[in-house]
Amino acid sequence: MSEDMKTIVDDEVRRALGEATADLQRRFADGMIAMRDKYNASAEETRRAQVAAGAFHEGIYFVQREGGGPIKIGFSTNIEKRVRMLQIASPELLHVIAHGPGTLAEENLLQRRLAAFRVRGEWYRDCDEIRAAIRAVCS
Predict the structure, then answer these.
(1) What percent of the chain is modeled with pLDDT above 90?
(2) Distance (Å, rounded) from C-alpha 134 to C-alpha 117?
(3) What pTM did the predictor assign?
(4) At a CB cut-off of 8 Å and minimum separation 6, what does 56 contact?
């Protein structure tokens, strides 16, 4: 085979491989998107079922270490899981002292309203104003 013919064949092989690779990449991406969408739909369906069954709580929560001290005000779509994660990082035993319905925006508003009582981050002094806020959220 002549050098010109080899070059033409090589170019054709490269073009065909390039097209096949692009096609495989498109099909792979489509498959990944379909799997992601199916997983997200399934995860959301599971979450709704868990909420309906009372398997976990979603909303604003208040956490305090055993024996008292600052109170954490937070929001979570899974309070029990969130508290487990907080517990991993804490040398003190933590307890959910209250929780109630609410959104992330409502939690942010509550934290801004209570900023004068903030110790650090989302942790607040255990005082009458914080206890009144807890009662308001949980009523």
Answers:
(1) 45
(2) 13
(3) 0.61
(4) 50, 78, 79, 80, 81
d(CA 106, CA 114): 12
Asked if 122 contacts 62 with a C-beta cutoff of 8 angstroms, the reply is no
Query: Any idea how long the chain is?
Result: 139
Distances (CA, A) of 97 to 13, 20, 48, 56, 130: 69, 60, 25, 15, 12
60-96 tens-digit pLDDT: 999 999 899 999 999 999 888 898 899 999 898 998 9
**24: enclosing H helix or E strand:** helix 3-53
pLDDT tens for 98-117 read 999 999 999 999 999 999 99
DSSP 55: S
Q: Around Cβ 54, how many Cβ atoms within 10 Å?
A: 7
Contacts of 123 (CB under 8 A, 6+ apart): 70, 71, 72
